[in-house]
C-alpha cells in the first residue's frame, strides 16, 4: 500500500509514497519549514509548493522495475523532492522571488536560487484575493467611478487580471490590472452576471506598493470612433440590461420538458484505482496533479507496453485582437501567470460527470505555504460513445457490433469569466483523445448604445464581446516501447500521370519526412499530413513498419498578432503547430517558466528547438499548439455553449490487429423501445433476427438489408 | 392522424399522408401497376421506386401553413408522386433503362423517359444477388481458380462490385466486377472473415449477357515488382492466416472485465414522435428515408423558426490510389451506383443504440417493384455528451453546470466490406452536427509473402490493405428564416502594424467574402475561414448582423487522382469543399444522377455551378465535400475502430442569447462515488457545498478553488 491523495496526512503504511504521488500535506509542511529556516532572518511569503518530479534518469528505471514486478530494496528509489516558489522579504522590505528544492525525506534544501529580476512571479491566491479591495479603497478609483454617473446602489465588481505584456519587465514594478463591472442594479444578486454591466475603466495596481497607480480609460465607441475614450453615455451602464444564467433568474424560466437520462453501472465501474494508479481495459497509467498544469498523466501503458511517459497541458494564452489601447494588454498565460491547478473546480457528483465516478483530490499549498487538500479536482468515469466497430456479413445477416467505451479523466478550471474543461479520453482500441472545451463567459467591455465595432460583436445591449484567440499547447513525452523515438510526418501526394508507373492517373504515394533535428512543423491538411511518433528500433511483425502512434491534428489558426509585437513575442509557442525537442528534465513549459508580465518567451519551445539537437531516435518531446480563434456570436452570451477541440492519438502499426477486436458485443438488455415506454402499440412488432449463432442469445445480431 | 411508416399498408384514417411521408407499400404497388400497364407489351424489370418529393413551390407554402396551424381544405396539398426506375425489355430482348413519375392518387403516369444510353442504371438487389452465381458457374472463372492451386475444400466468396469508371459507357456493355476471396479453409465458417484470404483475380461480367467476359489478374508483388501479375506463390492463399472478428472465433478470446453501462430514462425519452414528425427540446423536424440517400431530414425548425429545408448525404465515392491496373477501377459511388438506403442495416435494440430508442422503418421496393417494409433502419435516441455549459462565480463558489443532451438520428450501411455510420446529432443550443463514422473491413487484395508495397499496408500475412480515400458530400438546403439566403465566409487576418490604427501590433480584423454567384470555395483553416449561411433580410436585434448559421469545417484532403483521369473526372464534386448552387427542384445528386460506370460527372455540382446563377439573397443549396484519406494501419484489421468526422452547424447571431441558457442544471442523483460502489472508505468524505442557494436542494453547486 502506498499513501494516496485520499490519505494526504497519514501514510497508510510505513512504505514510502510512489515517486509520482503528489506531495502530502505533511511533506509540504516539511518543505515550508526547511525554507523558513534556510532563509532566516528574512521572512518568507509562500507562493506555490509542488512535487519536483524525479529526473527521467532515476524515474524511468524505477517505473520499468515496478511494472515488471522487480522492485526491491536495492531499487534506486527517487528521493521525494518539493519545489517551493516564494518571495523573501529582507530587512529593508525589499522583495526577491525565489525558488528552492527541498528533499522532504532528509529535510534538506538541495537547491536555491533568486529568480532573475526581469521575471515576475506568477500571481498568488492572496494577490488575487486582495486586489479588488486595494482597488476599491483607492481614491483615484473612486473618482473614476464618480465620472461614470452610476446609479446610487450599484455594487462594483472587480475581476483581477495579470497585467499582460510589459516591454521592460525588469525595470517595471509588479502590476495587476482589473476589469470592472457592476452587478445588475435591479437585484444586486451576489451571483448576478456582472459581465452584462461592463465599466469603461481599467485600474492598474502596483502590487509592491499596493496602490492604484492609474486608471486607464477604455474606448467604448463604434466603427467611426477610432481610439476615443469619452464617447460613453453619462450613466455608463444606463443602456445595459441583465443577462442572468443562474437558474432562478434566467429570463423566461427554465425548460420543463427535459427528462432524466441516467447512467447506471450495476456491477460498478470497469476501472480499478489504487492511489494514483489506474487500470482499465488494458490501459495502466498514473494520474498526477499540480498547481500549474492541473491533471497530468504518467507512465501510460497498454497491455504492459509503454506508450507515453508523460502527458499534460503545458500552457494557454488568450490574446485579444482589439488594437485600441490598453486592450493590447489583455493576454493571460493561464498556466504560467497563475496556474491551471490553482483555478481548478471542485467537481460535483451528478453535475460535472455522470455514472460511477472516481474523484481525485489535489494537494496544494496555501498562502502560508502549508499543505491543503482540494477535493474532487479530477473526475474519472466511463462513458459510452456510440458504435466502436461494426461489421455485418450481408450474406448471412450476421452483424457484430461493439460499443465504444471511453474512460474520461477530466478537470475543469475557472479563470474569472472563462471556464475550460480538459479531458483525457482513453478508448479500448489503444487510442487517447485529448479534448478541450471552452465555456463560461466571454470577456466583455462596454460599447456605446446603437454602435457596432470591428473588434468584436455586440452580444447584449452595451456589451461588446471582443475577438480573441485561445492558444493552447499540449506536451507529449512519448515512450513508444522505449525512450528512443522519432517524430515524422507522412503526406499523401498524387503521382505523376504516365504510362509506365501510373497509366490511369489514379495513383498516389505516401511521402515521409523525418524531423531529425529539433524544430517545428505545421499542419497541412490539404496533403493529409499525419504526424507519427515511432520507435525505429521496433518493427511491427505484420507490416514491417516501425511501431508508433499517429496524431492527426485538425489545422487551426495560430497566433495572429505580429511575431514582433509584445503579444507575439511572448507566445512564440503559438506560431507553429508542432515542436519537437530533445528531452531535458524539468522542461515542461511551452512558453517558458516565468510568463507573468513578460516581454518575450524565454526558455519556451522556441529556445528549446534553437539548441539544434538531434531528435531522430532520441529521447524527445512533442509539443502541440492549437488555437480557437473566437469571434463571439450572440449565442455565446451569457454563458457560451461548449466549443470542443479534440486531438486524437491513435496506434499506427503498434499492434498486430485492432486492439478492440476482443471487446464483447453483448447486447445491452436495458434499452427499450420508445413505443413500449410511451404506451404506443407498434404495428410491425420487433425486429426478427436471423437464426441465432452459437454465440448465445445475447449476441448482437441484425438483419442486414444489403439487397 | 396521418399514415406513418409504422402503418405502411393501412391508413389509420381517411386523411392523406403527409407530403413528406415515405410512400406506403400500397402506393408503391399502385405505381408498379401503372408502369406495367403503361409499358405494355414490353415487360418491366423494376429497380427502385421512391417518393418523388414535392417541388419547393408547392411544398414550402404547405409546410408554412402547417406549422402555423393554418392547414385547411383549401390548402394546396402536393400530390403524392412516385419516381420509378426500371428497365423495359422489348420484344427483341433489348433493354432500356427508364424513369417514370406516377401520381399514385390518380393512378396516372405523369412523366416518362428512356434514360440516355450513355448512362447505366444503378445496381439492383437482384444483380448483386445473382452476380456471384454467374461467376461461379463460369468456366473461365473455374479455370482461373485452378491456376491458383487452392486447397481442396476452400469455399470461394465473391464480393459483387460496380465496375468503376468506363471511358465510353455508351458503347460498352453493362459490367460488374467481383473481388474474390475464400473463407478460412480451417473452418469454412459462413461468417469467416474472407478478407484475410484474398485471391489475385477479378472476374468481369457482362450483365446483359450474364457471362464472365474476362478474368483480370492482379498484381500481388512488392516494391520492386512493378505491374507483374505472376509473382504470387503456387497456393495463392498458402501464406494467409485467419483473422476472425465473430466473437466465438476471435483469436485469444474476449475481454472478461467490461462491466455493463446502461442508459436509463425512467420517465421516458424527452422526444415526441408522430409519424415522421419529431419534436425535441424546441427542435421540430421530419425524418425521411429513401433507397439512395438513406435518412433525410426536412423542415427543420427551432422554436418555430425555420433553419433548414432539407439535409442529407448526397454522395460518397471511394477511389483507390493503387496505380496498378485494374485497381484504377476500384471506385464505387455508393449512393449513385447502388443506393445507401439499399445497403442499410436493420438496427438492433441495445447494440447499435442505447437507452430509449425510437426506430423508423423504411418502405422500399423489392425486385419485382412491390412495396416492402425494412424495419428499424433509423434509430433515434438521446445521449449525454458531457458538460453543455458551465460557469462558477469564484467569489461565491456557486457553480451552474448543465449537461449537453443530444438527440441522435442514426443509420448504418454495409457496402460489402465497409460500414458507415451516419448520424444527425441535434443539441439544445440550436446546433446540428453531421457525424460520419467509417468502420467495417478495409478492402484487401493479395500480396506475396515477405513483401511490402507502396500502395498500401500489409495488415495481415498475405493481405494488402490498399490506400484509398472516402469522399463524401453532404447537401444542405438552408431556410434561415426564409428561403432567401446567402453563403459567405469570414476570415481573421492580422492588421498592418502602425501607430495610428494598430499601435501594438495585436489587432486583427474579420474579412467577409460573399458568394454572389454559384461557385465553389475551399477550407482555409490558417485564416480561420468560417462559412456562414445568412438571411440578409433579417438582422439580429442585438448585434445588428444578419441572422445565420455557421459552419466550421475541418479541412480535409480532397480527391488526389488527377482531375482529368477517369477517377477524377467522375467525381468533380470532390475537388472542392464547398459548392453553392441556386436551388432547382430534384437536384439532389452531387456527382450527378447516374454515376454507375460513368466516365464523367454529369449534372453534378460542377455542372450546376457552371450555370453561373446569382446566389446572393436567393434560394440556394450548399454542398459540403469532405474526405478521409485512408492509408490503413494494422489496427484497422480485421475490423477497423471507427474513424469519426464531424461537421458542426451552429447558430451565428440567429438567437438573442445562448438558446440553451434555460436548460435546467438539476443534479443527476443516480450517479455514485466509485468508492461507495466498490466498498472502499473514502478518507475525506464528500465535497461540501457552500450554502445552498434558493434554487433548491437539487441545484448544482460546487466549491471553486479559484484561489
Query: Low-confidence parts of chain A lasting 5 or more residues at pLDDT below 50?
Result: 1-14, 683-699, 701-707
CATH class of the domain at 283-652 in chain A: Mainly Beta
> What is the largest interface, and how many residues per chain?
A-B, 214 and 214 residues
Span between N and C termini of chain A?
Answer: 60 Å
CATH architecture of the domain at 283-652 in chain A: Distorted Sandwich
Helix content range of chain A = under 10%
**Sheet having the most strands of chain A:** 10 strands, antiparallel
Mean pLDDT of chain A: 92
Number of helices of chain A: 8
Rg calculated over all Cα atoms of chain A: 28 Å
Shape call of chain A: globular
Organism (chains A, B): Terfezia boudieri ATCC MYA-4762
Subunit structure (chains A, B): Homodimer.
Modified residues (2',4',5'-topaquinone) (chains A, B): 418
GO molecular function, one term (chains A, B): quinone binding
Amino acid at each position: 500500500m502506498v499513501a494516496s491523495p485520499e490519505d494526504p496526512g497519514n501514510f497508510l503504511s510505513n512504505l514510502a509514497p510512489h515517486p509520482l504521488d503528489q506531495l502530502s500535506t505533511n511533506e509540504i509542511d516539511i518543505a515550508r519549514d526547511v525554507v523558513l529556516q534556510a532563509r532566516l532572518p528574512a521572512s518568507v511569503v509562500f507562493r506555490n509548493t509542488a512535487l519536483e518530479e524525479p529526473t527521467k534518469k532515476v524515474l524511468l528505471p524505477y517505473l520499468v522495475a515496478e511494472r515488471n514486478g522487480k522492485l526491491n530494496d536495492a531499487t534506486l528509489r527517487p528521493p521525494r523532492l518539493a519545489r517551493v516558489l516564494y518571495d523573501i522579504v529582507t530587512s529593508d522590505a525589499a522583495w526577491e522571488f525565489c525558488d528552492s528544492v527541498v528533499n522532504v525525506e532528509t529535510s534538506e534544501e538541495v537547491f536555491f536560487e533568486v529568480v532573475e529580476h526581469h521575471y515576475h512571479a506568477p500571481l498568488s491566491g492572496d494577490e488575487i484575493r486582495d486586489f479588488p479591495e486595494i482597488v476599491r479603497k483607492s481614491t483615484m478609483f473612486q473618482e473614476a467611478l464618480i465620472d461614470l454617473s452610476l446609479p446610487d446602489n450599484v455594487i462594483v465588481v472587480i475581476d483581477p487580471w495579470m497585467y499582460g505584456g510589459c516591454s521592460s519587465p525588469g525595470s517595471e514594478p509588479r502590476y495587476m490590472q482589473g476589469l470592472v463591472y457592476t452587478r445588475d442594479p435591479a437585484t444586486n444578486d451576489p451571483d448576478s452576471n456582472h459581465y452584462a454591466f461592463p465599466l469603461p475603466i481599467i485600474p492598474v495596481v502596483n502590487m509592491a506598493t499596493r496602490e492604484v497607480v492609474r486608471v486607464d480609460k477604455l474606448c467604448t465607441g463604434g466603427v467611426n470612433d477610432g481610439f476615443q475614450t469619452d464617447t460613453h453615455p453619462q450613466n455608463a451602464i444606463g443602456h445595459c440590461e441583465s443577462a442572468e444564467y443562474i437558474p432562478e433568474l434566467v429570463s423566461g424560466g427554465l425548460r420543463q420538458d427535459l427528462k432524466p437520462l441516467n447512467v447506471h453501472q450495476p456491477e460498478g465501474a470497469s476501472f480499478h484505482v489504487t492511489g494514483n494508479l489506474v487500470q482499465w481495459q488494458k490501459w495502466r497509467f498514473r494520474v498526477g496533479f499540480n498547481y500549474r498544469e492541473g491533471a497530468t498523466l504518467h507512465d501510460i501503458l497498454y497491455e504492459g507496453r509503454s506508450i507515453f511517459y508523460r502527458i499534460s497541458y503545458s500552457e494557454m494564452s488568450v490574446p485579444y485582437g482589439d488594437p485600441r489601447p490598453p486592450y493590447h494588454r489583455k493576454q493571460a498565460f493561464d498556466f504560467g501567470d497563475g496556474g491551471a491547478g490553482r483555478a481548478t473546480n471542485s467537481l460535483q457528483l451528478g453535475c460535472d460527470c455522470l455514472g460511477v465516478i472516481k474523484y481525485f483530490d489535489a494537494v496544494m499549498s496555501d498562502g502560508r505555504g502549508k499543505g491543503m487538500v482540494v477535493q474532487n479536482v479530477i473526475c474519472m468515469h466511463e462513458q459510452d460513445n456510440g458504435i466502436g466497430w461494426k461489421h455485418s456479413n450481408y450474406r448471412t445477416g450476421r452483424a457484430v457490433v461493439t460499443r465504444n467505451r471511453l474512460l474520461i479523466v477530466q478537470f475543469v478550471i475557472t479563470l474569472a469569466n472563462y471556464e475550460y474543461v480538459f479531458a483525457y479520453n482513453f478508448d479500448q482500441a489503444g487510442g487517447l483523445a485529448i479534448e478541450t472545451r471552452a465555456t463560461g463567459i466571454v470577456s466583455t467591455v462596454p460599447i456605446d448604445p446603437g454602435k457596432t465595432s470591428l473588434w468584436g460583436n455586440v452580444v447584449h445591449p452595451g456589451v461588446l464581446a471582443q475577438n480573441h484567440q485561445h492558444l493552447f499547447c499540449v506536451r507529449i513525452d512519448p515512450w513508444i516501447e522505449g525512450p528512443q523515438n522519432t517524430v515524422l510526418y507522412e503526406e499523401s501526394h498524387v503521382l505523376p500521370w504516365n504510362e509506365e508507373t501510373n497509366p490511369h492517373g489514379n495513383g498516389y504515394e505516401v511521402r515521409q519526412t523525418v524531423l531529425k533535428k529539433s524544430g517545428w512543423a505545421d499542419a497541412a491538411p490539404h496533403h493529409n499530413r499525419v504526424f507519427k511518433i515511432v520507435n525505429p528500433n521496433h518493427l511491427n511483425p505484420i507490416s514491417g513498419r516501425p511501431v508508433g502512434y499517429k496524431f492527426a491534428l485538425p489545422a487551426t489558426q495560430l497566433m495572429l498578432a505580429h511575431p514582433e509585437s509584445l503579444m507575439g513575442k511572448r507566445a512564440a509557442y503559438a506560431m507553429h503547430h508542432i515542436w519537437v525537442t530533445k528531452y531535458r528534465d524539468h522542461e515542461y513549459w511551452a512558453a517558458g517558466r516565468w510568463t507573468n508580465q513578460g516581454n518575450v518567451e524565454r526558455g519556451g519551445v522556441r529556445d528549446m528547438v534553437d539548441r539544434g539537437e538531434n531528435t531522430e531516435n532520441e529521447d524527445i518531446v512533442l509539443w502541440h499548439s492549437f488555437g480557437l480563434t473566437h469571434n463571439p456570436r450572440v449565442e455565446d452570451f451569457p454563458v457560451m455553449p461548449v466549443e470542443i477541440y479534440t486531438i486524437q492519438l491513435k496506434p499506427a502499426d503498434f499492434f498486430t490487429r485492432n486492439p478492440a477486436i476482443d471487446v464483447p458485443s453483448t447486447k445491452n438488455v436495458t434499452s427499450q423501445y420508445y413505443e413500449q415506454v410511451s404506451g404506443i402499440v407498434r404495428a410491425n412488432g420487433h425486429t426478427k433476427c436471423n437464426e441465432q449463432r452459437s454465440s448465445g442469445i445475447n449476441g448482437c445480431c441484425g438483419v442486414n438489408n444489403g439487397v
